[in-house]
Amino acid sequence: MLIPPVEIGETAPSPDNNGAIVSASSVELVAAVALAEKENCCSAIGQLSEETVAELDRWVLEAVDDEERRCRLEAKKRIIACTFSSFWVSRTLDLRGLWLSSLPDIFDDPFLQEHLYVLIVVENRLAELPKSFFTLKKLKSLDLSGNRMKRLPYLRTIIDLNFSCQSVRVNLNDVQLPPELERLDLSTCGLTTLPSLPSSLKTLKCSSNPLENLPDEIGELKELELLDIFQIQATELPDSLGDLLKLKKLNCGGNKLTTLPSTLGKLKELRELSLRGNRELSELPAELRGCLELSEIETTWTNISNVEEILRELKVLREIRGLKDWAESESEFDFMSRWQDDDRQRCVAWLDKLKSAHDFQNSQDALKKMVRQILLSTESSEKFRVAFF
Prior knowledge:
Low-confidence stretches: 1-30, 36-42, 330-336, 377-389
Shape: elongated
Oligomer: single chain
């Protein structure tokens, strides 16, 4: 049964002589509705059931002291605000920073079942979630960071889960993760091993855990784009990292690495690499030249000496790749069509040779010389000249 919109002037719930809760909407509830209408200029888009409102009232009255009651009242206001149009865009219930030790058992409410997509309960004192939470049908994102949870909750629909910074040691033995999970944050949970991870993951953060080393199975996460393993006490990285062909950002700073696997050179999409704080690391592998998109390498508090050389060579390789693309094109620049076939083929072949060579010192001069020879017999555009000379 749905209740009509609350009218100003209704009385707050209070225990009767026998200690039972009187079923009535509270003054705070009315105030929340009025405030939402006044400040957000929003209208009601739905209603919470009568049972849900009664459960909220009961939950507030069960507070053990005034401070907890104040926090629960604030939580109730935020929950009631979900029925107004300002909620419609984000579909988010934000209960962060209220120091709650429990949540009201209201998530089986039809309105929340249908419309709640994001739940944020950061920085509370939660040790568990109410049973009705596990009945939510459309929740996509859950942020539980900064609580006291020992176990990961399972809800099949979740694709974004933040479980970081639990103040108790987390037990992930035999834990089940949502099959379509894309983003997972397990930072600072006291983990010594990782759970079985779904292949759908695109972001994995497990920093500040005593993991020591990553399992070889990490290479099975073929969709992974961001991996954060900062300060996990790692002494080496598995060769299977080279199988993460979609990886764009890798943070392995704050560890005890002495070398990097040569397989990192297979990461063609890698753009950012952080090695900060690996004090025993003295050299980057030559194979990193294979990471053509790599433009940012953080090496603060390391002894790496060849980072500038690697970055400079990567820049040259990107330029060569661009030249090759232009040399193969017949549509982007009109003058290209006037190149002789043998000139074009010779240039492309030479560029391929340069891309696979490690003698970069003379490559740019030699490349300019070849292009200049071709241009002598060609009416070249100014754009092309500026690009190479």
